[in-house]
Design a protein that fits this description.
three-stranded antiparallel β-sheet, 16 strands, alpha/beta, Aspartate Aminotransferase, domain 1, single chain, seven-stranded mixed β-sheet
Length: 386
């Protein structure tokens, strides 16, 4: 059997390797995954049950039902004061489907796309599966926080570049783009005739503010921008697989024509639950953000007590991304850690070469789970002299 060159080039993630070890161990503490241990709120679960019983069990339009797309448009306007129309929005089977469809539409063999990194491997692997070349522009550290290095972005662009990809708030770094950084990226895209793919799934999970700025508020030409968002992180709906893309009507039509033959529409009753989440979920989101902020402070204090760790500021998401003197081979270190302690953390290498030497700690867990996991982590580092 011979697989295609594009698919064969997709390697197993080091994070999956660590998670596989953890799955085989009873009572392991999995802080390697990018999801909360809190269940989806009951009002959303009831909405799906009600929708299924009311007959929302059939296909919808590939781009999603009009009611959901209108609710998403209203949410965008309420949060960012930017008006999108229904034909400029497509509901997708998770944010992941929106990312893949956007890259597949714009990047092909002989093309490349520039990724602001470290970054989740979905971007680079989607580019590889499309036959393109992923290029990386690493974030810089300044004043104890990550910042966008525009010189590195410029240096990665050439005549074959088709797309700039940025995730803010960032998984894994917790970096949040400033409006000045957004404007610089938008100007660069205009100058080089590029499309920006902006993954904004963590926009509600920021600290010191209620919302991260969206590139939709900066980029006027919608042919230049595809924003991806999701219900997964904001409403703890990871397993429900519901996200969306917003762009120009022309771009959205191109995407949903292709998605018809990939996944088709998201499940009809899940779309109805999404409408209720948008309509009734603001109180829940505020409480969730407060919960994560408390866990963020807990993790920062615990990591500060571990020798050899430098922790950049966590501006958003529910991840800490400490640089670890003892994790120059982050995959080997996290494998040894999980085997010895049952604590599974994500190796920085899972987020590209720019992540090596770091580890990612997901703090979307209970206070008790984090207390136990971080105590084991600290003990392992001290006792092994790592």
């Amino acid at each position: 059997m011979r697989f295609t060159r594009e698919l064969a080039s997709v390697a197993e993630s080091p994070m999956v390797q660590i998670a596989t070890i953890a799955e085989s161990m009873p009572d392991s503490l999995k802080l390697c995954y990018g999801e909360s241990d809190l269940p989806t709120p009951a009002f959303i679960c009831r909405a799906m049950d009600d929708a299924a019983r009311a007959g929302h069990t059939f296909y919808t339009h590939t781009a999603g039902c009009g009611e959901l797309r209108a609710a998403i448009a209203d949410q965008i306007h309420q949060l960012h004061q930017v008006r999108y129309e229904v034909p400029e929005i497509m509901a997708t089977v998770g944010g992941s489907m929106a990312i893949y469809a956007a890259i597949r539409a714009l990047v092909g063999r002989g093309d490349n796309a520039v990724i602001v990194s470290p970054a989740y491997a979905i971007y680079s692997n989607s580019i590889l599966m499309a036959g393109g070349e992923p290029r990386f522009a690493s974030l810089a550290l300044a004043g104890g926080r990550f910042v966008l290095d525009m010189d590195r972005v410029r240096d990665a662009i050439d005549a074959n570049t088709r797309m700039l990809i940025v995730n803010s708030p960032s998984n894994p770094t917790g970096w949040v783009m400033t409006e000045a950084e957004q404007r610089a990226l938008a100007e660069l895209a205009e100058r080089h005739d590029l499309v920006i793919l902006s993954d904004e799934v963590y926009e509600r999970l920021v600290y010191g503010a209620q919302l991260a700025p969206s590139l939709a508020g900066v980029v006027e030409n919608r042919d230049r921008l595809i924003v991806v968002n999701s219900f997964s992180k904001t409403y703890n709906m990871t397993g429900w697989r519901l996200g969306w893309a917003q762009s120009s009507e022309r771009t959205i039509k191109t995407l949903y024509r292709a998605v018809e033959f990939m996944t088709s529409n998201p499940a009809a009753m899940v779309q109805q639950a999404g409408i209720v989440a948008l309509r009734d979920g603001e109180g829940y989101v505020a409480g969730l953000r407060a919960h994560y902020d408390a866990r963020r402070q807990q993790v920062a204090a615990a990591l500060a007590s571990i020798p050899g760790i430098t922790l950049p500021e966590m501006q958003g998401t529910f991840f800490a991304f400490p640089k670890c003197r003892f994790a120059t081979d982050s995959t080997a270190f996290t494998a040894a850690l999980v085997q010895a302690t049952g604590v599974a953390l994500a190796p920085g290498l899972a987020f590209g070469g720019d992540g090596e030497g770091y580890i990612r700690v997901c703090f979307a867990s209970t206070e008790a789970t984090l207390t136990t996991a971080l105590a084991r982590f600290r003990k392992f580092v001290i006792e092994t002299g790592a």
